[in-house]
Amino acid sequence: MIQSRHVGIVAVSAEGAALCYRTICNEGAAQFGVHGHPEVSMHTYCLAEYMRHIDAGRWDDVGRLMLSSAQKLVESGADFLVCPDNTVHQALDLVRSQSPAPWLHIAEEVGAVAASAGFRRLGLLGTRYLMEGPVYPAALAPRGIAWEVPDGTDRARINAIIFNELVNGEFLEGSREYVRSVIARLETRGCDSVVLGCTEIPLLISQHDSALPIIDSTRTLARAALRESILNVAPSGR
What we know:
The chain is built from ten helices and nine strands. It is an alpha/beta fold. It has two domains: 2-105 and 221-233, 3-Layer(aba) Sandwich (Rossmann fold), CATH 3.40.50.1860; 106-217, Rossmann fold (3-Layer(aba) Sandwich). The strands form three sheets. Strands 6-5-7-8 form a four-stranded parallel sheet, with helices on both faces. The chain starts with a strand and ends in a 5-residue tail after the last strand.
């Protein structure tokens, strides 16, 4: 029988957190048996609380919210933590050493997948804070992986799609077509893959929609959580 560690999800936006949670539970069956998955707990402050700090550039305050959620989850029994929100990893990088439990880092997991697949130049899609911020450069540069972000007009439109539509559960065909066109432009700039670096974008864009191979950051993190949750496998018959 498989013994597992308790996964703590520090959630930020509902749609992305739900996708991470569903992936852990649904894909857990492949490792834990029918209807099986590790124990999972989730905590979130409201997105508005995060956004007032993010918009003001108060990343230390964002980190304090994450640490508060982390403490609540550890008190609930979580052994390690994940956050299915790429943007706030800018704050996690500031406070990770203060955490009451270890974290899996979404950009580090994406970097590992990219390196394993042999990708050398990633197109990065996400909020403007992510596309213009340090989270992915810090994770990719040590692996020798280059990255590109869309131009300013595309960054602004993608950011609006995320905050006006995706986090509210709206997935519009016009927005899907626009993101497809952005990916196609990244391909012309030499990208060999694209990171869906907002946890809601995988709900809008699938591999079928993309001119480039995609790395789905949300499901990548969820699969890493499944990997880390497994303690050991006892021999059958015991």
